[in-house]
Write a structure and sequence with these properties.
about 55 residues, elongated, 1 helix, two-stranded antiparallel sheet, mainly beta
Length: about 55
């Protein structure tokens, strides 16, 4: 089964321009270290190893 996992600044060391807000959206303007990474969220698609095409 495939699923989407979302990571926040509490789950990993955040990197600017490595999250879902990398388009330069308004949220991105208030997300960096000076804001405590409040808007940081990164999605990753996880595929089960047993899943076949």
């Amino acid at each position: 089964m495939s699923r989407i996992i979302q990571y926040t600044a509490d789950d990993e060391e955040p990197e600017c321009r490595n999250c879902d807000n990398q388009d330069g959206q308004k949220v991105c303007e208030n997300c960096g270290p000076e804001y405590g990474w409040a808007g940081y969220i990164r999605s990753d698609f996880e595929v089960d190893e047993n899943e076949t095409d």
